[in-house]
Amino acid sequence: MRIALISDVHLGTRQYNLKERYEDFLDAFRRFGEDVLSHRPEAVVIGGDLFDSPRPDAGSVLCAKEVIGKIRERAVNVLSVDGNHDLSDGKWADVIGATPLSEKPVTVGGIRIIGVNYRNGRDLVEEIQRLVDIGTKADIIVLHFALSEMNGGGSADTGVQELCPMLEKMGVRCVLMGHVHIPDARTWNGILFVNPGSTEMKSSNEPEEKYWFLLETDTWNAEPVRLRTRKVGQLEISSESDLANASADMAEEDSLGIAREDRTFWQIIADDSVNDVFKRLSQVIHDTSSMGRIIMRSSKARDLAPVVDRKESVATLASAIEARFPRDSSEARLTASFLHSPEPASIHLLVEKFMSGQEGV
Q1: At a CB cut-off of 8 Å and minimum separation 6, what does 281 contact?
Q2: So what's the pLDDT on residue 307?
Q3: Among candidate residues 260, 280, 302, the one where a domain is terminated
Q4: Which domain holds residue 340?
Q5: For a disulfide at 83, which of 54, 144, 169, 351, Cβ 3.0-4.6 Å?
Q6: In this structure, are strands 301-302 and 191-195 parallel, antiparallel, or unpaired?
Q7: What is the rounded average pLDDT for all residues in the chain?
Q8: Strand 77-80, strand 99-100: pairing
């Protein structure tokens, strides 16, 4: 039997406030939906963080529902657990047409599959021990966690040494994992651990190449399948010549008239030794209509997005407010009013009116 595993899709991420990056995350999942059917799996497992938030935006929900609907049309089971970003106790799985996994096994092709929603560190260990104590049996367990979290940030090997004896008592042959955005598949103590990584680059320390994995339960072997994603260009700026070359690369792409949705996303690491490098790179990115992120070696990462006019900025913030508060609630109206009253004195007055229960907020 074949099982496809994908994780950390993070639908709804509007990285660096770029509409194109928001679409990139949706497109990665759409491409997975197209690619996976050609491999004829009996089941698709989502290892958590399908959404970037437990209150995802409508576009992300519709994308997930569309992709999963097409997969299920081919009589393919879609199973999922919640990650730390989208914890909802399986509620979103029900909405989008997936089957939320729990301690009760779902059997597909004779393979028993269970799942545990995200738990941090020792909480996960305690939950696995509880499953052992109640006599749970499974061939595959789906978890959203990092092995190093089991021992307070130690090594993955140490985490495995604690986890494997419990898994052996349950009869587990394979652990399908999410949470860590770096793909990996290896066998410890006869148990296969598979983590497909993320489907798009959430941070600069992730590998550019993205994958989902196809598990063969006849051999208990998992192979990576490359995902088609936006090209990411890595640039190192430590001299004036590096800066000139980077500027030329971005200008060349700009001159070719490449559509924005097909352009490179630039990850730029710059040294402070280059005079005024952040400001100058920012100007190049703006002038060439490029997309990029500048990371200064000597300080925290600084994100860069093209200049956005106030109307678009307000629309983006208004969408975030709707995701946080019930529509038309007093909290939503109060927070939305901040967008149009940026001065501290005005905000203070609005908060005072809200706290006193006055109308018109």
Answers
A1: 237, 243, 246, 268, 270, 292, 294, 304
A2: 39
A3: 302
A4: 310-355
A5: 144
A6: unpaired
A7: 84
A8: parallel
